[in-house]
Amino acid sequence: MTYIVVDNCIRCKHMDCVEVCPVDCFYEGENMLVIHPDECIDCGVCEPECPVDAIKADTEPGLEKWLEINTKYAAVWPNITIKRDAPADAAEFDGVENKYEKYFSENPGEGD
User: Fold this and answer.
1) Maximal CA-CA distance, the chain
2) What is the pLDDT of residues 80-109, one digit of tens each?
3) What does the mean pLDDT of the chain come to?
4) pLDDT in tens, 59-87
5) Cβ atoms 71, 14 nearer than 8 A
């Protein structure tokens, strides 16, 4: 088992999770974070820290697509270990449906 970031992170991008991760397995895209599944130690401390419930165990049904996305982008986006502020309009995007199709960006974020 590993933890992964799912679509509700897109355009919300809260970073409370990176601050508590003991193995620094978060990677930053332009408008979301991902977890490197091979680096995650399955401790689960990040999951309750996410204010928009965007971190899930990969054992939950229907998350295969998100495991692939986390794996793919963790390999190319920069590592992030320092919490920064969420986007100013993050609250407007919490719970919006079809965020991947509408807003996902393949561009990397700043990283540390």
Assistant:
1) 33
2) 999 999 999 999 999 999 999 999 999 999
3) 96
4) 999 999 999 999 999 999 999 999 999 99
5) no
- Encode 77-106: b = buried (16+ Cβ within 10 Å), e = exposed: beebeeeeebeeebeebeeeeebeeeebee
Global pTM reads 0.95
- Is residue 77 within 8 A of residue 27, CB to CB? The reply is yes
Q: Report the half-sphere exposure of 65 (CA within 13 A, side-chain side).
A: 5
CA-CA distance, 69 to 23, in Å (whole number)?
20
DSSP letter string over 53-107? Answer: --EEETTSTT-HHHHHHHHHHHTTSPB--S--PPPTTHHHHTT-TTHHHHH---S
**Amino acid found at 79:** N
In this structure, what DSSP letter does residue 35 have? E
Full set of structural domains in the chain with CATH: 3-87 (3.30.70.20)
- Cα dihedral angle (53, 3, 5, 70), rounded to 10 degrees? -170
